[in-house]
Amino acid sequence: MNNKSVLPESKELPTPPPPPPMPTPPVPPKQPGDYLRENGVLHMDKEFNQENCMPLVKMIIEYNLMPTEKAPNVIHLYINSPGGFVDSCMHLIDIIKQSRIPVYTYGMGSIASCGVMLMMAGAKGHRYLTQNTAVMSHEFSGGTRGQYHDMVDQQPHMEWTNLKLMEHYVKCTGKKEPYIRKHLLAPKTDHWLTPEEAVKHGIADQIIESY
After folding, report:
1. Which among 45, 103, 148, 207 has the fewest CB atoms less than 10 Å away?
2. How far lies 62's CA from each of 20, 69, 72, 125, 130, in Å?
């Protein structure tokens, strides 16, 4: 007896050939600033406030979140700033000090007040000033407005800020408080320093001869 089924067997279709490779889309050209960001180059060339400091804070955090093979080995921070709000500067300094990627600082043009604070926060041994950089350090300044009790309430915060400022100078310069009070934070005095004096006082490590 023949057990062959009366139903036709399905015909196995041949494996279709692979599709032709899709053309690789052209790589878009680099935009201005791409090379700087890819190589860890940042600039602080404005007044220190929330708006101007936050892009640097976010960029340093992003560098630290990148896989090691994609992140820069060093972050190069170029500073040319007249200063600004201490709280905004301290925010940026806290991020720099927590960064697993070392941050090298470069003072150029003029660095004053918060610009000096940021300059000295760079990685020890890699805080650079050009030979033409003007440096100005001075005591914390602030102001209050409103009724008398409002101004009294602000006093503890101002004293705390002044204490934090001194602690920052001590930690970054390696100098004692009396030395700093005399040479860098004397009351009612703007200390204009040459690059050589800035190195002597512990604000920077090396002077770069531009020409």
Report:
1. 148
2. 39, 14, 11, 24, 28
Question: Closest by alpha carbon to 197, among 183, 178, 180?
Answer: 183
Return d(Cα 117, Cα 138) in angstroms, integer. 10
Confidence (pTM): 0.81
Count of Cβ atoms closer than 10 Å to residue 135 Cβ: 24
Q: Report the phi/psi class of residue 104: left, alpha or beta, with left for phi > 0 and alpha for psi in -120 to 50.
A: beta
DSSP 8-state secondary structure symbol assigned to residue 12: P
Q: Report the mean per-residue pLDDT for the chain.
A: 89
Question: Is 113 noted as a catalytic residue in this protein?
Answer: yes
The DSSP output letter for 9 is P
Active site residue: 81, 113, 191, 201, which one? Answer: 113
Torsion of CA 103, 70, 61, 163, to 10 degrees: -20
Which residue is it, tokens 């994609």? 70
Residue 98 CA to residue 86 CA, distance in Å, equals 18
The 10s digit of each residue's pLDDT in 123-161 is 999 999 999 999 999 987 654 455 555 555 667 777 888
Say if residues 138 and 193 touch (Cβ distance below 8 Å): no
The amino acid sitting at 187 is P
Can you give the pLDDT at residue 143?
Answer: 47
Tell me which of 76, 138, 168, 191 is the catalytic residue: 138
User: CA–CA separation, 207 vs 88, rounded Å?
Assistant: 27
Q: Is 91 a catalytic residue?
A: no
